[in-house]
């Protein structure tokens, strides 16, 4: 054997030895990867057997929520992927069941009434084969009102008594201990409100007349309030600021520039004081002194000063630091009619008719004349604006049979109220809960804020004061709303000072606040509906009769 053959043999032996070292021969073809589980999709949703998109309202408190998918689910992944939370983000327990061969998961919770919930399914949901859900899923649920009555049924007269008496506690029991004036709201501490105190004075008069408090106690409270206003409270040309410190009488600025006189707030206060002056008509020394002090305050207001250098209009604000910087004219149609009526009625600083015609009425530009829901509206913005326009000036001014060159005011206020009502019944923005027994858009608290709600600024918030204070204009519609607020929402809306300020059933929220300017009109307008008391008192003022006649008003009450 030659050397070459020996060499070849050795190479073959080495090759065979090297191959025997591995247990698996090297692959000789392409490698096939292990299969990856396919993703899957959401197929169908039913809440209580019905599909209605992904937002459900008026849901019962034990709904059945069925979520169906395109494949069989891994049950072990469901607990971590499917959650139910309330609006505050708190998790809610539910029971889980499976249908359609485990391709559908059915959850059944027990929920609170009038609460918003969110059902979320995240992409951590797995199929039985290990696949992922392609897209997350969100379902919104808002539960219905508990249909049970929250309080025993009583007669309508008893219910009106109850609302007046309970709401009066805001002004009488919760009045500021030093000044007796009305706190701005139930969390305001020492801040008292000038206009809201005027409403509160009228409420106290109504309360005395109803026997909720004695005449002596009511007189003592009025003496405290009037004495503080006369001797302690800041005044500017006889007018008061929007807010005061109820302990010291110092200005509590309403805003950076608004740290002086507020003529509209002063007007609401004077409306109340003149009403009280007419009510406390006894010849005893206490009542005589009260009337004299009220006259001092009333005659001290320099209405003509607020013409800003003799213009034919009134201005809302004046500041000792900022003068006329806010520069806001009081122009109609809004809550400001009372300022012009009082200005024309002043014994000491009267304004002429030209200021009313030009400044308030805009020589007719405040007219509307359009119809909404088939109801002609004489004055004001489209669809009437917030309902407090029909309340604040008319706590004392009786609109029934009252007319001038621009409108019949009984017709105006009834039209405004009915348009507001009909808007809520029509509910063009699909706000949850709106209807014939749940209506009333006006200025009020909203969640995390405050706004003047109206048909053209509808954020879904109903304020009880809107419908209740419209009782003289829409008695049937207002009583239906009042019953609903008390009997159906009373567990959420009824408190120690009457109804809380507002609520939202679309994105459920309930105020815990009470505001003087919303509580007062309820008591006063209920009383005007029942007896006309506050209207009769205010309209009996001889100055008011003269002033309103001078402005061109006609009324059997003048």
UniProtKB/TrEMBL annotation:
Gene3D superfamilies per record: 1.50.10.140
Signal peptide location: 1-20
Glycoamylase-like domain boundaries: 329-542
Ranges of residues in domain SbsA Ig-like: 47-140
Keywords, alphabetical: Signal
Source organism superkingdom: Bacteria
InterPro entries: Glycoamylase-like_cons_dom (IPR019282), SbsA_Ig (IPR032812)
UniProt-recorded name of the protein: Beta-glucosidase
Species, as recorded: Mucilaginibacter pallidiroseus
